[in-house]
Structure formats: C-alpha cells, structure tokens
Amino acid sequence: MDIKPLDQISRKWTTVTPGRANEYKAGILSPRKSWSQATQDAAENYAAGVQAALSEGRFAKGVSEAGDSAWREGATQKGVSRWPQGVSLSGPRYQQGFAPYHSVLASLNLSPGGARGDPRNYDRVREVGTALHAAKVGK
C-alpha cells in the first residue's frame, strides 16, 4: 500500500487539526447519532473488549509501556494549562455530584470520639465510610 511517510502524516495532524475546532464543535452539536444511544448500543462490545483486554493483560502491558514519563508529560504539558478552566466550568456538576454525599455527612450523628489514638476515633471513621459507601451503591 502506498502511504505518505509517518513524519508527514504527523506534521499534517499537528498543523491542520488544531484549526478544525469549529468542525469539532459542529460535530458535537449535530452528531449523526446520539452519544448516549450509541454508547448504550455498544455496551456489549465494550464489555467484551474489556474482558479480552483483562484476560490478555493489555491494561498492565500498556501501563508498563507508557511508564510514568508519558503520564507526567501529558499532565504537565496539557493538564496544567487546562486545569483552571476545567475546574471553573465544573462548579454546577461538582455541586450536583457531591450533593447526595453532603446530605449523608450532614445527617450523621457520630459516636463520641476519644483522645488521640483512641479506637473510638477509628469507629467514627468507619461510620462515615459505611454511610458514604451505602449512599454510593444506593443502599
């Protein structure tokens, strides 16, 4: 098969694609198929793919191949600059997501604690953890 050299393909990707933000946005606003519907339709394939990856050890292999440097490079070169805006935009969703746990914490009547190192303090931690876990799994 005749294909352009890899460096040319990569160069075009990094120089042309950033200018396609409007096309990216248009695709989000007018998808051919609903994201949630397509995702639900793919649930079986997703599960099968995850099971295959687990049985073949692909997750651990990928992590090993990437190493800490790939994660660190991506996080520092992209994540740091995107962090402030992402956090600012997430306020309403953060509040919505934390609201059930806030209610649980606000309604707890913890057992009495003790002095530093007292086992009763660990009991209080267990009470909080048990209540939060029950809220998470819907019990």
Largest sheet: none
The proportion of strand residues reads under 5%
- How far apart the termini lie comes to 57 Å
Total number of helices: 7
Q: Give Rg in angstroms.
A: 24 Å
Describe this structure in words.
The protein is mainly α and 139 residues long. Among the domains are: 43-83, no CATH class; 91-139, no CATH class. It is built from 7 helices and no strands. The chain has helices at residues 6-16, 21-29, 35-41, 43-56, 58-89, 91-107, 119-137. The chain starts with 5 loop residues before the first helix and ends with a helix. The model has no long low-confidence stretch (mean pLDDT 95).
Quick overview:
It is built from seven helices and no strands. With 139 residues, it is mainly alpha-helical. The chain is elongated and about 75 Å long.
Helix and strand arrangement:
Blueprint: H1 6-16, H2 21-29, H3 35-41, H4 43-56, H5 58-89, H6 91-107, H7 119-137
Helix pairs in contact: 6-7
Question: What distinguishing features does this structure have?
Answer:
mainly alpha; about 140 residues
